[in-house]
Amino acid sequence: MTEAPWLVVGLGNPGTRYAGNRHNVGAMVVEELARQAGAGLRQHKAGRAWAAEVRLGTAPGGLPGPRAVLARPMTYMNVSGGPVSGLASFYKTPVERVVVVHDELDIEPGQVRLKRGGGEGGHNGLRSISQSLGSKDYLRVRLGIGRPPGRQDPADWVLSDFPAKDRVETELLVGDGADAVIDLTQLGLEATQQRFHAR
């Protein structure tokens, strides 16, 4: 029996208004992975998501990397769970092969951290996914955006764009997030944590 594909979900809000927001950095990573694979995200028949079936990176020996479905929900962030559980059901992907890529206030800007399970830390997208999957034991690739300066409301911070002056840093964060997803699917969680958490 062929192993189910990985399901890699990048969180964000739909539409051009939100495209450059800090909250959309997970979606940016999935779009970068699709670009690297030469694939375009298209509306999926299983539900409210844009998706593409790809091979992630190159495996040892120059072989194609593991099968994966790249996806970003067409819904707003706080109701991401329905599209994620719909795709997981369609592809028969178990929760341990679901990877959610998302922004994280409590991680320094530019840092990438990985974990399996745990709490949602007030992240409504994660809360929705946990409820819809009936489990918190999916993998998370957490992209640091830091806390807002002064007394700025965190909600305003995540829904504001990355500043133009930080364009290079933003591109590096997206690139590192894409690399972390590929390593995670090929090397496993611990090896990928060691690589990225040591930075």
Automatic annotation (TrEMBL):
Cross-referenced PROSITE patterns, in alphabetical order? PEPT_TRNA_HYDROL_1 (PS01195), PEPT_TRNA_HYDROL_2 (PS01196)
GO annotation (BP), single? protein quality control for misfolded or incompletely synthesized proteins
Q: Which Pfam families match?
A: Pept_tRNA_hydro (PF01195)
The record's annotation in InterPro entries points to: Pept_tRNA_hydro, Pept_tRNA_hydro_CS, Pept_tRNA_hydro_sf
Q: What class of enzyme is it?
A: hydrolase
Q: Quickly give the catalysed reaction.
A: an N-acyl-L-alpha-aminoacyl-tRNA + H2O = an N-acyl-L-amino acid + a tRNA + H(+)
Quaternary structure, per UniProt, is: Monomer.
Please describe what this protein does.
Hydrolyzes ribosome-free peptidyl-tRNAs (with 1 or more amino acids incorporated), which drop off the ribosome during protein synthesis, or as a result of ribosome stalling. Catalyzes the release of premature peptidyl moieties from peptidyl-tRNA molecules trapped in stalled 50S ribosomal subunits, and thus maintains levels of free tRNAs and 50S ribosomes.
Query: Could you identify this protein by its name?
Result: Peptidyl-tRNA hydrolase
Native source organism of the sequence: Serinicoccus chungangensis
Organism taxonomic ancestry: Bacteria, Bacillati, Actinomycetota, Actinomycetes, Micrococcales
